Amino acid sequence: MFNIGDKIVYPMHGAGVIEAIEEKEILGEKQKYYIMRMPIGDMKVMIPLNNVKEIGLRSVINRNELEQVFDVLKGEKSNMSSNWNRRYRANLEKIKSGDIYEVAEVVRNLMLRDMEKGLSTGERKMLENARRILISEMVLAMSIDEVEAEAMINEIFR
Fold this sequence. Notes:
The chain is of the alpha+beta class. The chain folds into two domains: about 5-60, Thrombin, subunit H, CATH 2.40.10; about 65-155, Up-down Bundle (Methane Monooxygenase Hydroxylase, Chain G, domain 1). It is built from six helices and five strands, in the order ββββαβααααα.
């Protein structure tokens, strides 16, 4: 169970801060929800408390763990399928996992592939989504803004 003020990660959406825990009635069913504010896009998300385990909600990583994320970003490109569809599905599974290291791996692999061969529209959108997820967690873990986090990622790939 998380509390108001906790920094959490919602897989596929990114990191945010719990602003409130409210009971809402939706489609005739009363449920408690975390109200999470996301630093990027200033979006609010409602997350049902009874689905927290299935969703894979977790706490934001600390600075030491962030160093490991940077090591992943600086690492060698993983062996990826040459088949676009298989590669896309494998990357999507990594993003869905909510594991920051797997998200960083997707960012690294797609950025390196983009520099080598370019990306399809679908993979470009996937890269932007994975970058947004990674940046949102960096913003909360390091208490920096979105521009600084993005610059740090870009610097690795210069």
